Write a sequence for this structure.
């Protein structure tokens, strides 16, 4: 009879088994809870980068709509003779637009031509600190294409984060 009572009394879990199972469940719960904030930050960063990319691509499409002749006229009038590059920078926080590193005011024809007011508004909503438009003529002796402009647009935000696209426009 004592064997019958011994087997009947051994039903259930011991205290050690309960503590070990709670510890394991706790470790799994902590791992899962750590995943949620990391996932949220990655999702927000991805969403922000997508919106910035859309703004940069939209600006590129505006410039492509100007076509080669319009961009060539501005390039010829305003390029830096030493580097053969025409650079427009936008400091979103201060609203200062620079032409080849020299500030220009909002009355300058390039300010309206490239619609910096609208672009500044778009970029400031996204938290972008700087925008850049760079146009340069591609002049290679081995090139079979004459009249080719390289157009690069860049947006910078946060610490060392940027998005940049380049295209080529010809006649």
């Amino acid at each position: 009879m004592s064997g019958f009572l011994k087997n009947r009394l051994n039903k259930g879990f011991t205290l050690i088994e309960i503590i070990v199972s709670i510890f394991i469940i706790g470790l799994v719960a902590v791992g899962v809870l750590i995943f949620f904030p990391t996932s949220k930050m990655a999702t927000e960063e991805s969403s922000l980068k997508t919106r910035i990319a859309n703004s940069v691509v939209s600006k590129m499409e505006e410039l492509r709509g100007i076509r080669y002749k319009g961009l060539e006229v501005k390039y010829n009038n305003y390029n830096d003779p030493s580097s053969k590059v025409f650079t427009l920078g936008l400091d979103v926080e201060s609203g200062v637009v620079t032409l080849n590193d020299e500030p220009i005011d909002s009355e300058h024809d390039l300010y309206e031509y490239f619609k910096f007011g609208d672009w500044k508004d778009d970029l400031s909503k996204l938290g972008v600190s700087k925008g850049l438009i760079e146009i340069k003529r591609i002049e290679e002796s081995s090139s079979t294409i004459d009249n080719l402009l390289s157009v690069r647009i860049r947006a910078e935000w946060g610490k060392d984060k940027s998005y940049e696209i380049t295209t080529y426009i010809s006649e």
